[in-house]
Amino acid sequence: MTFNGQSVAQSGEIKTEILMSDDVDVNKPPLRSLLKRWAPLLIIATLLTAGYLAGLNEYFSFDFITENRNRLMQQVNNNFIVSLVAYFAIYTIAVAVSFPGASLITIVSGFLFGWLVGGLTTIFAATLGATIIFLAARTSFGDLLQKKPASGWPKCQKDFRRILSIIC
User: Fold this and answer.
1) DSSP code per residue over 31-68
2) Is the pLDDT of residue 41 over 90?
3) Residue at 9 is within a domain
4) What is the model's pLDDT at position 3?
5) Containing domain of residue 55, as a range?
6) Dmax over Cα atoms in the chain, in whole Å?
7) Which residues sit opposite 6 in a β-bridge?
8) Whose CA is closest to 5, among 13, 163, 14?
9) How far is 81 from 159, CA to CA, in rounded Å?
10) Stretch 84-112: mean pLDDT, rounded?
11) Which terminus of the chain faces fewer neighbouring Cβ atoms within 10 Å, N or C?
12) Stretch 63-82: mean pLDDT
């Protein structure tokens, strides 16, 4: 049975034909989709690589910290808020790009800002950095993990939803 050029099934469903040219690969995602999917991880990898190429890793060494102890303390004493905001940004980026020197930066926060202010700032910066890397990984690998779940994945999803319902 036909209606306005479309075939209608007995159950009332409309069946249509999609005409495609031979040069279109329906299994290949468009470039824009690929960029959106992989851009977060590319940005993180680029930041980490650029940091190493610029030699920033040498500023996050025990030797550098001990050599510049007085200068760092003076900077914090003269500009406490600016120093704290700079530390927060540096620590967030360090965690987001999984920079190996983050543990030393954690110790320096207590040394520069005191255990309470340094500790609280580190906790919030680490949480933000971890959230950034989590979202980047989920954007890039989330579909893959959901399409090919491990045997325990449904239970994990159920537990995560339960925990989120308690928190939120």
Assistant:
1) HHHHHHHHHHHHHHHHHHHHHHHTTGGGGGSHHHHHHT
2) no
3) no
4) 47
5) 33-146
6) 87
7) 3
8) 14
9) 40
10) 90
11) C
12) 93
Whether residue 58 contacts residue 6, with contact meaning beta carbons closer than 8 Å, is answered with: no
Q: What is the mean pLDDT of the chain?
A: 78
In-domain check, residue 78? yes
Residue type (1 letter), 15:
K
Sheet with strand 2-3: strands edge to edge: 2-3, 6-8, 14-15
User: How many domains is the chain partitioned into structurally?
Assistant: 1
**Cβ contact 108:65 at 8 Å:** yes
Beta bridge partners, 14, equal 8
Residue 68 lies in a domain: yes
Residue 161 placed within a domain: no
Predicted confidence (pLDDT) per residue in 102-157, tens digit: 888 899 999 999 999 999 999 999 999 999 988 888 887 766 666 665 566 677 77
For the chain, the residue count is 168
Rounded to 10 degrees, what is the CA torsion of 42, 84, 106, 52? Answer: 40
pLDDT category of residue 46 using cuts at 50, 70 and 90: confident
- In 3-state terms, what secondary structure has residue 101? coil
Q: CA 44: distance to chain centroid?
A: 8
Q: How far apart are CA 87 and CA 93, in angstroms?
A: 10
Distances in Å between the Cα of 8 and the Cα atoms of 2, 3, 18, 19, 143 are: 6, 7, 15, 18, 34
Residue 17 CA: distances (Å) to CA of 5, 7, 35:
10, 9, 30
More confident of the two residues 11 and 112: 112
